[in-house]
Amino acid sequence: MNDLQGLDLLTLPFKAQYKVLSFYGAADNTILNKDFSDVDLIGRELIIKSFKIVNYAQEPTIDFELSDGTKETIPIGYRLPRLIDRWGTGTTITFLINNSNLPLFNNVAGLSHLPADLSLDNIFYHYSQKVQTINLRIFSQVLTTYVPAFGNPLVKVIVECYIF
Predict the structure, then answer these.
(1) For 75-110, what is each residue's pLDDT tens digit?
(2) What are the DSSP calls for the chain, one per residue?
(3) pLDDT tens digits for 131-146?
(4) Which of 15, 40, 85, 153 is most buried (most C-beta within 10 Å)?
């Protein structure tokens, strides 16, 4: 924690490296892929600034349907402009650094009740140990048709952080 002496929100951008971490994959509780190299993070501490989930269609998804039968369908891999997720289930986020779950999110399946399009800013969560590994799992279900049928969307998760 000596690295943080004299560090506050005004000096943080000048003393630490700003980095955007991007994870992507299916929100089916498997480890998401990374759009960055762990090399920049290994052996360094980090402060998480923001966290955002963006959802995409994993299968052709009906966005809306008119009474005459006309349907607006979102193709696979396209961003979901509207989300319909379950109140009682919610989205489960498991953020792992050095194979330990960060206590930022309640990650007990079925008890998290986070929205599928969660967006948090100005978190400034400090992970004080040196990073060796970083991984993320998301479990989410969104409405895919008006049957109704729920499925796991594709997600991109953007994490802004400072590393030092």
Answers:
(1) 888 887 777 777 777 788 999 999 999 888 876 655
(2) -GGGTT--TTTHHHHSEEEEEEEEEESEEEEPEESS-GGGTTT--EEEEEEEEEEE-SS-EEEEE-TTS-EEEEPTTSB-SS--B-TTT-BEEEEEETTEE-TTS--STTT--B-TT-EE-S--EEE-SPPS-EEEEEE--EEEETTTEEEPPEEEEEEEEEE-
(3) 999 999 999 888 776 5
(4) 153
